[in-house]
Design brief:
Strand content: 15-25%
Shape: globular
Radius of gyration: 14 Å
Strand order of the largest sheet: 1-2-3-5-4
Distance between the termini: 6 Å
Order of helices and strands: EHHEEHEE
Length: 155
């Protein structure tokens, strides 16, 4: 459970034959305002797609991934979100090829819980390198009769 799921292709990119109902892509500033911009972008997109019920969870997870990128990676920084059927997929893209790892944070530690939150709240998550860095992504299910935070862990 300590290593991130490493898909051969980041799910948020959709891929051939995977129709997307909606998608958004945003460049983020390499500054303390990046998390704010990312949360605003996700909330706006989900509102537009009629998915306000998953907005709080998506905002939290995007904020964690952007914060991790600012702390451990390098520019450029971007956010992609796509709606694929009943699944929201969000990816934070940065300029570092170093893949994230879940670490065990002690009760006195002031950091180290972000990816644990992602692991607990997302249906799936992972990371994948690309030509310029990496993408760290998560999926939330938002279909009928499903709780958006009901995780089906595949790690």
């Amino acid at each position: 459970m300590g290593a991130a799921l490493l898909p051969s292709k980041t799910p948020c990119s959709g891929g051939a034959g995977t129709p997307s109902a909606a998608a958004g892509s945003w460049a983020l500033p390499w500054s303390s305002q990046a998390c704010h911009h990312a949360r605003e972008a996700v909330r706006g997109a989900l509102r537009q797609w009629g998915l306000d019920d998953v907005a709080d969870t998506a905002e939290l997870l995007v904020s964690e991934l952007v914060g991790n990128a600012l702390r451990h990676a390098r520019a450029p920084l971007a956010l992609n979100c796509v709606l694929l059927g009943d699944t929201i997929c969000c990816a934070v893209i940065d300029g570092s090829p170093d893949l994230p790892q879940v670490v065990g944070a002690g009760s006195e530690d002031e950091s180290g819980r972000g990816l644990t939150l992602v692991e607990l709240l997302a249906a799936r998550w992972g990371s994948d390198t690309n030509q310029t860095g990496k993408a760290v992504w998560f999926e939330l299910h938002c279909g009928p009769g499903r709780s958006p935070t009901h995780a089906e862990h595949t790690l």
